[in-house]
Amino acid sequence: MNMKKFAPVAMTALLFGSAVVPVASANEKPTEAPQIQIDPVHIFNNTHGAVEKVHAGKKITYYTVKDGDQTNVLEITNETPVFDNTGKKVELKEGDKIVAYTFANKPQKLIYPPQFNPDVVIVETEEVGFVEVDYFFENLTNTYDILKLNIGEKTELVNSRGDKVTAKDLAEEHLVVFYTASTKSIPAQTTPSKVIVLDNKFANTVENTIEAEIAAIIEADSYEVEGTKMVPLRLIAEKRGFTVESTGKGAIVTKGNLSYTITRGEKMFGINKALHPLHVAPALLEANKTYVPIEFAEEFLK
User: 177 with 253, same domain?
Assistant: First the structure.
């Protein structure tokens, strides 16, 4: 095998948080839960509780939210989307039971009690209605393949500013989904009454930083085999949110509904139930470290 290791360079690394978004239901009894729920896919910080105090400023209204011994403060402006669990736009008031969702990549003040500038607030009511706030893939399933959306003719589709959008605009976006029933299948399927596309203003910043880290990994840790640059599978896959499970002779790489089966020494790899060729077979070029052609990382690890 004609193999050449590329010279390493200095590399910096940043740490990222990551958040899952649970279903918020007005018809379920509140349960004690941490204010910030940490999960392998950390998209949102979730704040639960009842509004205990309201302080109105010139442009920002501060809502003190209590949940047992936990106290948080929400900074609400005229632009903050606030809905009840049926999708109706409402105003917050004392006594409301709420769940507030704040993008985890959003800068947060180092202050006590914690203050959040939420991206959407849901007020629980006695009305029948469920809410899912999560990232949805191209096929409109959420991050853990728990819920799949079937958009109907009567489904209201808007962005966070209230402008109308189409079903095509929902793919690979962070959505607020309002619905009243779902199937018992896996994933559960629902035809929502309303879907809101959230605007994650910080997504591009985080994405650009991750890509810079990956570029540094490739420059510091890559080989040339038969004229093809080979890069470390696990390091790059995990940076882009994939889970990598070793099989002893390769790896299974998954994210959402995607599943890749990589076998060292074989040019064919599996995509779900299909096969796809590579120019150069994955290889164990360092101890306990599988390398793949850079074409695989660029085309499939997105």
Answer: no
Quick check: 21 pLDDT over 60?
Answer: no
- Asked whether residue 193 falls in the same domain as residue 158, the answer is yes
Report d(CA 128, CA 179) in Å as an integer: 9
Supply 222's token pair.
């890559």
List, in order, residues 6 or more apart from 203 with CB less than 8 Å away. Answer: 105
Asked if residue 67 is part of any domain, the answer here is yes
Residue 57 shares a structural domain with residue 110: yes
H-helix or E-strand containing 175? strand 173-179
Collapsing DSSP states into helix, strand and coil, what is residue 217? helix
Regarding whether 46 and 153 lie in a shared domain, the answer is yes
For residues 192 and 46, state if they share a domain: yes
Report d(CA 298, CA 302) in Å as an integer.
7
- Same domain assignment for residues 125 and 185: yes
103-140 burial: b if 16+ Cβ within 10 Å, else e: bbbeeeeeeeebebbbbbbbbbbeeebbbbbbbbbeeb
Q: How many domains does the chain have?
A: 2
Number of helices followed by number of strands (H, E) in the chain: 3, 24
Q: How far apart are CA 5 and CA 226, in angstroms?
A: 12
CATH number of domain containing 244: 3.30.457.10
Domain that holds residue 238: 221-300
pLDDT digits (tens, 9 = 90+) for 205-256: 555 667 778 888 888 999 999 999 999 999 999 988 899 999 999 999 999 8
* Same domain as 45, residue 132: yes
The answer to whether 128 touches 180, Cβ cutoff 8 Å, is: yes
Phi then psi for residue 207, to 5 deg, are -60, -40
The number of beta carbons lying within 10 Å of the beta carbon of residue 190 is 20
Indicate the pTM of the whole model: 0.58
- How do strand 188-190 and strand 147-149 relate by DSSP bridges? parallel
Q: Give the C-alpha separation, 136 to 256, whole Å.
A: 9
* CA dist., res. 267 & res. 292, Å (int): 10
